[in-house]
Write a structure and sequence with these properties.
Elements (H helix, E strand, L loop, with lengths): L4 H12 L1 H25 L10 H43 L4 H41 L12 H27 L3 H7 L11 H20 L3 H36 L1 H4 L2 H12 L1 H30 L1 H8 L4 E6 L6 H13 L4 E17 L2 E3 L12 E8 H8 L9 E6 L8 E4 L2 E8 L7 H4 L4 E7 L2 H15 L7 E8 L3 H14 L7 E4 H54 L4 H40 L5 H35 L3
Parallel strand pairs: 4-8, 5-7
Antiparallel strand pairs: 1-9, 1-10, 2-3, 2-4, 2-9, 5-8, 6-7
Helix pairs in contact: 1-2, 1-4, 2-3, 2-4, 2-5, 2-18, 3-5, 3-6, 3-18, 4-5, 4-18, 7-8, 7-19, 8-10, 8-11, 8-19, 10-19, 11-18, 11-19, 11-20, 12-18, 13-17, 18-19, 18-20, 19-20
């Protein structure tokens, strides 16, 4: 054959199949651009100027790994739709005299065109948007916008290397599909449907068990430490359960519907149910993918959005005051240090608006039966019901909170920050304390809010109780015993820059005191904004990618099924089915197939809500109502987008099936 024949034929094939190739190429371009941006952002020197930049760098690196894995799966998935549409065309070429090696060359040139277009336009789009994305990240994190333009050569090389490998694997897979069947099978491939699958009741039941197990973990897990690890177990179970339910459970459900004569023997139900049963094996995987991607979008966007909107609450929970000075010993023993701070405040003319002081004792304990164990040889693990107990005297509590509460010798009041203490009696060191009140608010202590374990803040009657608890935990923990400490906190009307300057002055003041800890909210706000802003950016970024994937999977599935159903509906019209009945049957089928993944994704999100709320509580976001509102808004927004996709694809599907333009 003449030189240049193959690449010309390949170019013509892409032009003729533009309706299916163009979305695929656009997807390749966007996926390449997103991967380049993620890689480029990890190498942007501007990250060094952000507090928590190393954390954001690691998250971005993880994000780029997720995108690369996703690209392999997703591009293979979409290329399979193209290959199924092209098999008949390749079969015709083979019948007309082209050998398999010639078909492989045509497929190779088509892959080269897609690779070059995807890489060149994707990298160019990535470079064009990279600066904009970095500026968006700076804006979200509240940083100053830097001038200049950064292009990462290493990111370009990484992008080219990853996607050339992906497209090479896709090409090998395509050639294998062409070469493993004979020409007649290739010619008939576009018209070959799936054999009617059997109802696999055992797999359907197993899918329900996996899904039930994941839901049970999400709903019943109470330990905030264990919730971190159990989250991944629940996710794995839900993903496995979703695939099994769609692959096996959907077939079982459709066959049950077919047995219901009153439902099945209606025109629209007869056509849609029989059609879905006939080809459900292929549909099921696509539907499961849509469901999982939809769930990921909803979870990522809702959690990161609630963290951004609840930023001030997170900061105030972690930093209850503008300045917090932690010292070893009781407050009465450290009065000299506190007076030194007050003198420094006067020297700096620092406008203090409020100050409070209290003494506390804190140590870990593990629930054992109805009581708690405090032992040196007791290993604390995520499987344990582990608490940190934080004790403060009634007089200090009343002074800080402006209350006038009273307690008897064996009475206590409790405030729980992450995990509720549900007992009416606290048994500790073989002694019982009766819980007379569960407090709705408590004096702040940022150090213990930063811990991932649940803290039980306990108000005890007097200082003698604190001393007794201190001696008992010292006997139990020995060298690991905790000391009694005090905290001096104050708020100020000064600006953040002035607060940071005063913070450095206080550090100089206590440079010789190795037992002190000093925190300032202004510094914490910058760190939280940088980290949470970076997470929000990545959540929106990956959410956009998964939305794009969802749209394209739906598009290809509907277009592919439209071509497969065309002849079937032509036969139905010839035997007396009207266009209106065809349209009603199409609507019934598309509605069922379309909204089942969204419905199950919504159930997944609702089931995951308790576990995700606990994970957010570990990050000091206790506003469950805010997270609930963000989840509802995200689901509503995603649902509206889903309806728009339905309207578009249903129209295209009907045009293909009915043969109208």
């Amino acid at each position: 054959m003449r030189r240049g024949f193959y690449w010309k034929l390949a170019a013509g094939n892409i032009r003729k199949n533009s309706k299916t190739y163009l979305p695929y190429i656009l997807t390749c371009i966007v996926t390449v651009a997103i991967f380049y941006i993620m890689r480029s952002l990890t190498r942007n020197p501007g990250l060094n100027n952000i507090i928590g930049g190393s954390f954001i760098h690691n998250v971005l690196a993880l994000g780029s790994a997720v995108v690369s894995i996703f690209a392999v799966i997703f591009l293979f998935y979409t290329s399979s739709f193209l290959m199924k549409r092209r098999k008949k065309e390749f079969g015709l070429f083979n019948i007309l005299g082209m050998e398999r090696r010639h078909l492989a060359r045509v497929a190779g040139w088509e892959t080269v065109y897609v690779t070059l277009a995807g890489l060149f336009l994707g990298v160019m789009l990535g470079i064009a948007l990279d600066k904009a994305m970095f500026l968006v990240m700076l804006r979200i994190t509240g940083r100053e916008v830097a001038l200049g333009f950064f292009v990462s050569g290493k990111a370009v090389m990484d992008t080219v290397g990853i996607f050339v490998s992906i497209f090479a694997l896709i090409y090998i897979h395509s050639v294998w599909q062409i070469c493993r069947v004979d020409p007649i099978e290739l010619l008939r491939a576009g018209n070959v449907g799936e054999e009617e699958p059997k109802a696999k009741w055992l797999l359907a039941l197993l899918g329900l068990c996996f899904l039930g197990g994941g839901y049970t973990i999400a709903i019943t897990t109470q330990n905030p430490i264990a919730s971190v690890m159990m989250f991944f177990v629940a996710v794995l179970l839900v993903i496995l359960g979703t695939y099994l339910l769609f692959v096996a459970g959907s077939i079982a459900l459709l066959k049950l519907l077919r047995k219901n004569k009153r439902f099945y023997y209606q025109t629209k139900h007869f056509v849609s149910v029989s059609g879905m049963i006939y080809r459900m094996k292929q549909n099921a995987v696509g539907l499961a993918n849509i469901c999982i991607l939809s769930t990921m979008v909803l979870v990522m966007v809702s959690t990161t959005t609630s963290m951004m909107l609840g930023m001030e609450d997170i900061i105030r929970n972690r930093y209850p005051a503008d300045f917090m000075l932690y010292l070893e010993g009781k407050s009465g023993e450290r009065e000299g240090e506190m007076e030194a701070v007050r003198r420094l405040q006067k020297e700096w003319a620092m406008p203090v608006t409020r100050e409070w002081i209290y003494t506390y004792l804190a140590f870990p304990a593990v629930r054992e039966g109805e009581g708690f164990s405090v032992k040196r040889d007791r290993a604390f693990s995520v499987e344990d019901d582990t608490y940190t107990f934080f004790f403060i005297t009634l007089s200090d509590y009343n002074a800080v909170m402006g209350e006038e509460k009273t307690l008897q010798t064996d009475e206590i009041m409790i405030y729980s920050n992450r995990q509720k203490f549900d007992g009416s009696v606290l048994r500790l060191f073989e002694k019982e304390y009766h819980v007379v009140e569960r407090l709705k608010d408590f004096v702040g202590n940022g150090l213990y809010e930063s811990m991932i374990s649940a803290t039980q803040y306990v108000v005890v009657p007097d200082e003698e109780t604190i001393d007794w608890l201190y001696e008992r935990q010292k006997e139990s923990l020995e060298d690991f015993a905790r000391e009694i400490r005090c905290v001096y906190s104050f708020d100020t009307a000064a600006g953040e820059e002035e607060q940071m300057a005063f913070y450095y002055a206080m550090e100089d003041l206590f440079a010789a005191d190795e037992g002190h800890e000093l925190e300032v909210r202004a510094d914490g706000r910058k760190a939280f904004l940088d980290i949470n802003g970076g997470l929000f950016f990545i959540g929106i970024f990956l959410g956009t990618l998964f939305v794009m994937a969802t749209v394209l999977i739906i598009y290809y599935k509907q277009i592919s099924e439209g071509y497969e159903d065309k002849k079937r509906f032509e036969i139905l019209q010839k035997v007396g089915m009207s266009r209106a009945e065809v349209k009603a049957a199409i609507r019934s089928q598309v509605l069922t197939v379309f909204f089942l993944p969204l419905l199950l994704a919504g159930i997944h999100v609702v089931a995951a809500f308790p576990l995700l709320s606990k994970l957010l509580a570990l990050l000091n976001l206790y506003r469950t109502g805010l997270y609930m509102a963000c989840t509802a808004v995200c689901f509503l927004s995603f649902g509206i987008m889903y309806v728009c996709i339905y309207a578009l694809t249903a129209k295209n599907y009907y045009r293909i099936v009915s043969g109208t333009k």
